[in-house]
Amino acid sequence: MKRFDAIKDIMGYIKEEIVVCNIGFPSRELYQIKDRAKNFYMLGSMGLASSIGLGLAISKDNSNNNKDNINNINNLNSDKVDSNKGNEKIIVFDGDGSVLMNMGSLVTIFNQNPKNFILIVFDNGCYGSTGNQCTYAQNIDLLEIAKSIGFENCYNYVEINFEDILNKKQENSIFIHCKILPGNADSPIIDLNPDEIKNRFLKAIK
Amino acid sequence: MDSSEAVYKGLKSAGIDFIVSVPCVNLGKILEIIDEDKEIIHVPVTREEEGIGICAGAYFGGKKTAILMQNSGLGNCVNALGSLYQLYSLPLVMIMSHRGTEGEPIVGQVPMGKDTPKVLDAMDLKYFNPKNSDNAKEIISNSWETSIKEKVPISILLDINYW
After folding, report:
1. Considering A32, A102, A161, B106, which has the largest number of Cβ atoms within 10 A of its Cβ?
2. Secondary-structure class of domain A3-65+88-205 per CATH
3. Pairing state of beta strands A153-156 and A174-179?
4. Tell me: the pLDDT tens digits for A158-202?
């Protein structure tokens, strides 16, 4: 399975969730597969998709604040996620090269641990958008790294039912390692300008 | 007014409710005050660039954001300031302890201390150099609004002599 098929598979389950997507071909492929206002296409700042997603997740994580609000009371009898507006989960599509560039982010995510955050790392062992040069991720196991940091909920994508995980109420931030084959789809350049991407995103997630 | 308290009061008056930080000895007291403030979410980060990525997301989530860091951290943020903040016209308040300025005892701080204003100039990013507490409080109080209006990050450089 290449990245395109993995993104297509995952987007088949995404409903109200917010998606923050990595620079380059991942964003182009997502745009082609399922463009939506709730996708944030990160056109620059390689490495920061997980950080942008984390900031969004912390600021929207109701379980994190001191005001024990009505949402929490309503959720007591339910194992299901309340996906009402404002309570959507934040899903980040990241890559192995980008994770290597900002590895401290994994440590910060673990420590902050927002319960509405899922980091999916597509790992093809190469810098896919720049000509498939090898990354060091080929010689290490990013899932084991996440485990050793302390992530209690970290999974190999092929071993899980993603839909179940997506729809369950989370106790922790989730790390998902998705091993894929190298290769980009023939996806066009995104024909939205940065302001358009931002403005429709802000409106959709408000 | 105490120099650290002036920065805190400025941030409060600006409505800042989400702060990321990488510490500097000169920011220690402000970080302690912020940790006591339940209205402010404080996220210590591993690297400044990571921090401003987190701030971008928090802004999308409705927060008013600031980073507290040493000016050395500006060097770690340059690409993200360009290809995230300028690209998407995002606001941010950057409070920097400006090391390597007059009175700096540590030689390693001097080169980046000299380069800091030039880096900001090169990126067309506006910055302020308050020299006393009253001045700092006033400038920081207006910083978020200025950042929103001008659609760029606003920096406040606090020299060694400020403290």
Report:
1. A102
2. alpha beta
3. parallel
4. 999 999 999 999 999 999 999 999 999 999 999 999 999 999 999
Cα distance between residue A24 and residue A14, in whole Å = 21
From chain A, the residues in CB contact with B89 under 8 A are 194-195, 198
pLDDT at A80: 56
Contact with chain B for residue A201, Cβ under 8 A? yes
Q: Are B61 and A47 an interchain contact pair (Cβ–Cβ within 8 Å)? A: no
Q: Please give the model's pTM, rounded to 2 decimal places.
A: 0.94
Type of residue numbered A36:
R
Mapping DSSP onto H, E and C, the string for B71-91 reads CHHHHHHHHHHHHHHHHHCCC
Residue spans per domain, chain A: 3-65+88-205
What's chain A's Rg over C-alpha atoms? 16
- B3-162: CATH topology is Rossmann fold (3.40.50)
Q: Positive or negative CA dihedral for B82, B83, B88, B93?
A: negative
- Tokens read off for A9: 């598979």
Closest CA to A202 of A64, A18, A16: A18
- The count of other CB atoms within 10 Å of the CB of residue A85 is 9
Give dist(CA A15, CA A88) in Å, integer. Answer: 9
Ordered by start, the domain boundaries in chain B are: 3-162
